[in-house]
Design a protein that fits this description.
CATH topology: Neuraminidase
CATH architecture: 6 Propeller
Structural class: mainly beta
Largest sheet: 4 strands, antiparallel
Low-confidence stretches: 1-45, 352-359
Number of helices: 3
Radius of gyration: 19 Å
Helix content: under 10%
Strand order of the largest sheet: 3-26-25-24
């Protein structure tokens, strides 16, 4: 079912949260102060800035995606429920106004269908603000990629008292898959907006933050991880029900997994953090791990790991032609009742080229 959320004016306590920007905030209102250092490979291929360090009040982005049409990043907002664009130079501008008293979390850019797909929920908001008579809310918002216009919102809460749509992905047919971090069900939304349960499994259910990051593998299955236990699952929509979900054998649990990024070479970037500790969930460490698999993700090995990640509170990663960028949007600060205007994108270290190795 599709519905448009009521746009409510939200005012937070100054002692707890920064003032939420008005829904009509102009695009020029959030201007960054970029600070970045550029690097080039021996062959002259531009890897992009090592660090993009921006300043923008009240954004607190948790999700990010690369937009090749703008050559920039699209981010959500854990606090004010809108979308913004972050340029490679660090400039921050609003793309779409708030869709209501929700957090805009997982973000995907689907250029083939001219859309931005965003998971939203009021799970965090209702723990910090008075949402009035708004029922527990989770859904997927579809925005036009070229204009940022809201096309529709699709409810995935289904009337549940506890709901937390957190991350999403999509397949080559345009189906969207949504993880709900307090539910035992992964939802599928077809291209017409119809919502059906893809799989229900007791291993997914959690009190605070369970299933979180999810990606679609081009060979026809999902990879998803639980935040609180660090367990990874392979979910095959075409398999019989009793074999649809299998646990991926990992060298170690990746506790605190938030976001994932599947590279073209088949490796998987896993971003972990300790943000959940601010709300009583088991947390991991601030780290970025790159995994490989040789058996169709029935097991995985570690290619590389950066621990601790140099910027605290990383949440997810955006894959770009210029390098893969991990977002630290200070979400942990706002959950802990503190404020910050800093947004940091840090490039995942690249393996040296053969020429660099021989220097």
């Amino acid at each position: 079912m599709s519905r448009t959320l009521p746009l409510r004016a939200a005012v937070a306590s100054a002692a707890v949260l920064a003032t939420i920007a008005p829904i009509g905030l102009p695009a020029s209102a959030a201007v960054a102060q970029p600070s970045s250092s550029h690097s080039h490979s021996a062959a002259g291929w531009w890897r992009g800035p090592q660090v993009i360090d921006s300043r923008a009040a009240d954004v607190y982005p948790e999700g990010i995606a690369w937009d090749p049409t703008r050559r920039a990043f699209v981010v959500g907002s854990a606090l004010r429920g809108d979308l913004s664009v972050i340029g490679m130079d660090g400039t921050v501008t609003q793309l779409a106004p708030s869709i209501g008293m929700v957090s805009t979390l997982g973000v995907r850019v689907d250029t083939a269908r001219n859309r931005i797909i965003v998971a939203y929920s009021d799970f965090w908001i209702r723990q910090r603000l008075d949402v009035g008579d708004q029922p527990p809310t989770s859904g997927v918002a579809i925005f036009a990629l070229d204009t940022g216009e809201l096309r529709r919102t699709i409810d995935v809460a289904g009337g549940r008292e506890r709901t937390f749509a957190n991350d999403l992905t999509y397949d080559d047919q345009g189906n969207v898959y949504v993880t709900d971090s307090v539910s035992d069900t992964v939802q599928r939304i077809d291209p017409h907006g119809n919502v059906t349960p893809l799989v229900t499994d007791p291993r997914f259910a959690a009190d605070i933050v369970g299933l979180n990051g999810v990606v679609w593998h081009p060979r026809g299955y999902l990879l998803a991880l639980r935040y609180d236990t660090g367990v990874m699952y392979r979910i095959d929509p075409k398999a019989p029900a009793h074999r649809r979900v299998t646990e991926v054998r990992l060298p170690r649990p990746l506790v605190g997994t938030d976001g994932l990024g599947l590279r073209r070479d088949g490796s998987l970037i896993v971003v972990t953090n300790s943000i959940g500790e601010a709300v009583g969930a088991p947390g991991g460490v601030d780290a970025v791990t790159v995994l490989d698999s040789r058996d169709g993700w029935r097991s995985a090995t570690v290619r590389s790991r950066t621990e601790p990640w140099p910027t605290g509170g990383p949440t997810t990663v955006a894959l770009t032609p210029y390098g893969d960028y991990v977002l630290s949007g200070q979400v942990g600060e706002v959950l802990a009742g503190r404020t910050s205007d800093r947004i940091t994108l840090r490039r995942v270290p690249c393996p040296p080229t053969s020429k660099e190795k021989n220097r």
